[in-house]
């Protein structure tokens, strides 16, 4: 081992073990671990604590001689009273010494924070939560878009980056002060930064019953590899399926609406749409129809006159797509109908893979 020479200098004498250890100790960082837990609606578990104004994900400091995974499991037990195994990493965040204005007396040298996937907790496991008699005053499951309002800016960036990494299914991501060093399309578009539209309506595998007005027609549009087309609003990061409202030119035919709106919103041309079913808003009695179809051609998307920008088109597995919407428990029934239609269309089940942007055709 040798000391690092200054530019232009000759290499210095070999360093002793003691000198090398002291050199590395001067660059030592703190280590922390946190756990991202969601409920079946895709809302994130946060903790309210009595020692700071902002909320936190479950987690804390890694003790001396302890691995980050062991620390994550220990913290979940100490803070929530639930046994957990931290065996899947979502993010590793390098937090700089000057990132959040730590007081000089803290002598904060910077930190490496490991974020683990705590999974989706069903109601029975949530009911097992037992808070300690100190520090943790309450827990809450919140919409991802609320994280910047409830957590510190750095913690919110880290949590959203980890959540997008979980959806993207591409392994753990490397962060610097909460931001990915290699942003994915979900990061670039700021997906989940705005609240997902809440539509917890029952799913029906049937045509609209007589007397209901079909006010929306949307399609699960399949690529040849079994992924589906999702539109992302550039101004808000909100996701939607291609489709829209019926018009007089459709003459009451919802398939005509889907053909027209798929072309207008996604520049996609379809073949032989299959009716999947519908969801009904019980308050307004408005009906939202869902179809499935393979798209046969993709053109250049139109610019939205309101924003002067075109929606970004991405390809995602059906499972990834449902995580971008807040459709409640009935989303599972709709997803099952989507896969039945995919099978009927003779398309493969998409393998887990990152969400990708659909490029515009050239030439």
Topology of this protein?
Elements: H1 17-26, E1 30-38, E2 44-49, E3 59-61, H2 68-80, E4 89-95, E5 111-120, H3 123-126, E6 136-142, H4 147-150, H5 153-168, E7 173-176, E8 179-180, H6 185-188, E9 203-204, E10 213-222, E11 228-232, E12 239-240, E13 243-244, H7 254-266, E14 268-281, E15 286-298, E16 312-316, H8 318-322, H9 331-344, E17 356-357
Parallel strand pairs: 1-5, 4-7, 10-15
Antiparallel strand pairs: 1-3, 2-6, 4-5, 7-8, 9-14, 10-13, 11-12, 11-16, 14-15, 16-17
How would you characterize the overall build of this protein?
The protein is an alpha+beta fold and 363 residues long. The chain has two domains: 155 residues, Nucleoside Triphosphate Pyrophosphohydrolase (Alpha-Beta Complex); 155 residues, Nucleoside Triphosphate Pyrophosphohydrolase, CATH 3.90.79.10. The chain is 23% helix and 28% strand. It has nine helices and 17 strands. Strands 3-1-5-4-7-8 form a six-stranded mixed sheet, sandwiched between helices. Strands 9-14-15-10-13 form a five-stranded mixed sheet. A hairpin with a 4-residue loop joins strand 14 and strand 15. The longest helix is centred in the middle third of the chain and has 16 residues. InterPro entries: NUDIX_hydrolase-like_dom_sf, NUDIX_hydrolase_CS, NUDIX_hydrolase_dom. Keywords: Hydrolase. It comes from Streptomyces pulveraceus. Pfam families: NUDIX. Its cofactor is Mg(2+).
């Amino acid at each position: 081992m040798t000391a690092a020479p200054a530019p232009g200098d000759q290499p210095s004498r070999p360093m002793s073990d003691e000198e090398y250890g002291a050199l590395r100790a001067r660059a030592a960082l703190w280590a922390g671990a946190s756990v991202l837990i969601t409920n079946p609606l895709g809302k994130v578990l946060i903790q309210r604590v009595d020692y700071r104004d902002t909320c936190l994900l479950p987690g804390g400091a890694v003790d001396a001689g302890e691995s980050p995974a062991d620390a994550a499991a220990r913290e979940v037990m100490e803070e929530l009273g639930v046994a957990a195994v931290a065996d899947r990493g979502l993010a590793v965040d390098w937090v700089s010494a000057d990132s959040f204005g730590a007081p000089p007396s803290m002598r904060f040298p910077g930190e490496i924070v490991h974020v683990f996937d705590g999974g989706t907790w069903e109601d029975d496991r949530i009911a097992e939560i037992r808070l300690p008699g100190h520090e943790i005053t309450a827990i809450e499951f919140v919409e991802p878009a609320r994280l910047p309002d409830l957590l510190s800016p750095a913690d919110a960036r880290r949590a959203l980056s980890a959540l997008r990494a979980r959806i993207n299914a591409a392994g753990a991501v490397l962060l610097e002060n909460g931001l990915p060093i290699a942003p994915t399309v979900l990061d670039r578009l700021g997906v989940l930064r705005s609240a997902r539209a809440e539509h917890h309506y029952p799913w029906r595998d049937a045509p609209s019953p007589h007397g209901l007005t079909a006010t929306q027609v949307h399609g699960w549009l399949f690529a040849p590899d079994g992924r589906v087309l999702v539109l992302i609003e550039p101004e808000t990061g909100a996701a939607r399926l291609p489709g829209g409202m019926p018009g007089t030119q459709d003459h009451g035919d919802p398939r005509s609406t889907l053909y027209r709106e798929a072309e207008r919103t996604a520049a996609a041309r379809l073949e032989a749409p299959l009716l999947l079913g519908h969801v009904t808003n019980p308050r307004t009695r408005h009906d939202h129809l869902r179809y499935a179809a393979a798209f046969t051609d993709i053109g250049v998307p139109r610019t939205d006159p309101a924003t002067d920008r075109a929606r970004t088109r991405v390809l995602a597995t059906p499972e990834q797509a449902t995580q971008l919407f807040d459709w409640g428990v009935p989303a599972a029934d709709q997803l099952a109908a989507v896969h039945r239609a995919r099978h009927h269309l003779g398309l493969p089940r998409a393998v887990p893979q990152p969400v990708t942007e659909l490029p515009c055709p050239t030439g």
